[in-house]
Amino acid sequence: MGESGCGKSTLVNTILRLEEPTSGEVILEEKNVFCLNKKEMLQLRKKIQIVFQDPFWSLNPRWLIKDIVGEPLYVHLNLSLGELLTKVEKLLEMVGIPKTALYKYPHEFSGGERQRIAIARTLALEPNFVILDEPTSSIDVFSQNQILELLEKLKEEFNLTYILISHDLSVVKSMADKIAIMYLGKVVEYGPAE
Known about the structure:
Layout: H1 8-15, E1 27-28, E2 31-32, H2 38-47, E3 48-51, H3 55-58, H4 65-76, H5 81-94, H6 111-123, E4 129-133, H7 141-158, E5 161-165, H8 169-175, E6 178-183, E7 186-192
Parallel strand pairs: 3-4, 4-5
Antiparallel strand pairs: 1-2, 6-7
């Protein structure tokens, strides 16, 4: 948690190995992610996924929903087309999106529905860790509450560990067990959410 510009997104990009750290290490499952080779990093990427802040920009506008949600399955698993479509339908169903969405484009959905689609894609590879980068900041209040309830349900159902990036105290209070406060690129406080 922290104000805009405090380094939350940089931290996320470093965890995902999209940016090099200026100091320190990123240890996931007892491994320094910056010491992993390409094959090891590909395996790790299956275990850690991200839900971006703005579902409009995180979903390719030229792809059908079946392709967006199915891409991680296509890249990482050797599934037949039928198996892939069945898995995509189940993922969409889990987040409350009907299978009629398979052959639609992202712009045909509301912000809350797009965020649900992004969450379905995130769950495709059954990750252990999910980074939630301001997952409710670009959607209406009604959809925010629905998304938070969905995320809580999925956390319990799949035993997920969330890394929640937010500056919204009410979202953090409803989701977090532990909180780290960032200021000027550093964690300045860490402890239980209470």
